[in-house]
Amino acid sequence: MFKNVMLLAALLLPASFASAHEYNVGELHIAHPWSLALPPNAPNVAAYFVIDNKGNEADRLLSVDTPISDRSELHEHVMKGDVMRMQQVPNVVVPAGGQVTFSPSAYHVMIMQPKDRSLLADGKRFPLTLHFEKAGDVTVEVAVQKQPPEGTSVHQH
């Protein structure tokens, strides 16, 4: 019986690693960077993740970059009157002991005019480097998915 349980655990282990990927830099923890597969006519793609700050001091995400594009920007969605609009932001504060969620209709990374669209197909991954004021740089792998993770709502604009 124990042998069967261990075999089952060994078989399931790679599946759990395949879907969840997490990174640490300083006191920051970055969970499951993801992006939706790029539709054929879309000029840009967005990347999403969650940053937890386990430290006693705030940090700031200053910028991002990726080799798949010459330009990547930090953006947020804001309400202007009755309309939700996207706008670039100079940085994103990650509060001490707090969390910032990059998700559709919130903060997100806009990757402009990707060079190799084949890297943005379901099941692929691409590197994204996050530059923090205090924690420094961390390169994460963004998982390209056909569907957003469970519990994530995506509003098309």
From TrEMBL:
Signal peptide region: 1-20
Keywords carried by this UniProt record: Signal
Family matches, as SUPFAM superfamilies: DR1885-like metal-binding protein
Protein name per the record: Copper(I)-binding protein
Source organism (scientific name): Pseudomonas japonica
